[in-house]
Every structure is written in C-alpha cells, then in structure tokens.
C-alpha cells in the first residue's frame, strides 16, 4: 500500500481491532504495529473498548506451533534482499597529505551541522490530510457466538460486513439500517460467514450516522416485502464515525 492510499491511522487501528482488514491492508497494519508503538497503543485501545462483547465467549487455545509460524512469516518479511550490503566499504589509504584533506573536510561538515542546529528554522503550518469518511459498528444479539462487524467507507460507498458464528438455518441473513425515524431500510443479504461487500444505495447513504442502527434479521429465501423485515431482529449495533 502506498502512502498516498493509506487511510487515516485511527481508522486503520479500529479496522484492525474489529477484524475488518484483509490481505495487503492487514499485512500493512500488522507491520505498522511492530514499527510504531503509538499505532500499537491505538489498536490496543480499540480492542479494550470491544473486549466486553467477548466476555461471554469461551476461550480457545491457539493451535500448536502457531507462534513459530508467525515468527517465520515475520522473519521472511524482514529478510535482507540477496546481494544487498549493510556495511559501507572503508576508503582506500591515501599517501602524502590525504589525511589532512580528510580532516579538513570532516571539520567543515561539523561546522555546517552546528550551524544547522542553531540557525532559526522557518515555521511551516501543518497541512491537514484529507481522509475518507468512515463508520464502524458491531452487531450482537441473543444468538450465542453470533458477531458481525461492519465498516462503511464513503469514498467507495461500500460497506464490508464480517459474519462470525452464524448458525445453520433455513432462513437467510438480511442486513437493514434503521435511522432516527425508526423505519428500516434494506441494505442487502449477507453470506453466512466471511466478509460480504455491499454497495450502499445512493438514497440510503444519508442514513450513515451515529443516530442509525444496523440490524440483522433471518428472512425467507424470497422476501415477502423487500421494504421491511418480516422476522424479528437477531443482532443489532449502533454506527460510530471514526
């Protein structure tokens, strides 16, 4: 990922904690965690905020050898490219007055550095970086183990929804947004696991705000009425802008 395409750090930290990043974006965020303690602290802060949602879930031991595989992947990322050198070659010995010239050059460089430290620097006003408008939500409910995490990006008008713990039923998961007026609007059908990408209809994008809830219902394969749910809500969560 190039620096021009990198999203806001806070947004990236929230998405990593929510488990919404995949592929190259996830790898970039994990590398940033290792290199930047401030970014790692942001991820930990987000994880602390969502930790209470997992209190009712039983702990599961990690598979044997997982840490060794993780360390192997990190070592592969940090490996030095073949043929590259990290040690500068020593200069060849010079005869005669060569050492005098080297001493003079070193003194000149030291003087320039000293001037740079004391010379007043012009103040440059920081330029705020534009970032896409994003919102996230977590949906939980009475079904044990069911958890949904959603991320909306206004720059693409897409919402990514990750589904975990969906039970096997004869009905299909349907996502709705309920704005302040209390009237549900259909966003689309979700896969029963993994990440579903939904393009938000233009008329529904204005409802992406902190006054809106996302809800999940389990509907028949053919919706009786596409404009309103026909089944009770099984998971819900409020949108938060980041």
UniProtKB/TrEMBL annotation:
<feature type="domain" description="Anti-sigma K factor RskA C-terminal">
    <location>
        <begin position="106"/>
        <end position="220"/>
    </location>
</feature>
<dbReference type="InterPro" id="IPR051474">
    <property type="entry name" value="Anti-sigma-K/W_factor"/>
</dbReference>
<dbReference type="GO" id="GO:0016989">
    <property type="term" value="F:sigma factor antagonist activity"/>
</dbReference>
<protein>
    <submittedName>
        <fullName>Anti-sigma-K factor RskA</fullName>
    </submittedName>
</protein>
<dbReference type="InterPro" id="IPR018764">
    <property type="entry name" value="RskA_C"/>
</dbReference>
<dbReference type="GO" id="GO:0005886">
    <property type="term" value="C:plasma membrane"/>
</dbReference>
<dbReference type="GO" id="GO:0006417">
    <property type="term" value="P:regulation of translation"/>
</dbReference>
<dbReference type="Pfam" id="PF10099">
    <property type="entry name" value="RskA_C"/>
</dbReference>
<feature type="region of interest" description="Disordered">
    <location>
        <begin position="220"/>
        <end position="242"/>
    </location>
</feature>
């Amino acid at each position: 990922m190039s620096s021009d395409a990198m999203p806001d750090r806070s947004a990236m930290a929230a998405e990593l904690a929510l488990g919404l990043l995949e592929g190259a974006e996830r790898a970039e965020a994990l590398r940033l965690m290792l290199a930047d303690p401030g970014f790692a602290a942001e991820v930990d802060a987000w994880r602390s905020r969502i930790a209470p949602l997992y209190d009712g879930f039983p702990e599961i031991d990690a598979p044997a050898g997982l840490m060794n595989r993780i360390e192997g992947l990190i070592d592969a990322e940090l490996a030095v490219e073949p043929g590259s050198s990290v040690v500068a070659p020593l200069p060849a010995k010079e005869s005669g007055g060569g050492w005098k010239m080297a001493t003079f050059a070193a003194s000149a460089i030291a003087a320039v550095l000293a001037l740079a430290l004391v010379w007043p620097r012009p103040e440059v006003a920081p330029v705020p970086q534009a970032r896409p408008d994003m919102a996230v939500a977590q949906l939980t409910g009475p079904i044990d183990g069911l958890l949904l995490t959603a991320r909306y990006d206004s720059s693409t008008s897409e919402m990514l929804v990750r589904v975990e713990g969906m039970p096997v039923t004869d009905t299909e998961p349907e996502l709705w947004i309920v704005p302040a007026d209390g009237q549900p609007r259909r966003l689309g059908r979700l896969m029963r696991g993994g990440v579903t990408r939904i393009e938000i209809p233009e008329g529904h994008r204005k409802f992406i705000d902190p006054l809106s809830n996302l809800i999940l219902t389990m509907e028949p394969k053919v919706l009786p009425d596409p404009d309103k749910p026909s089944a009770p809500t099984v998971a819900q969560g409020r949108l938060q802008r980041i």
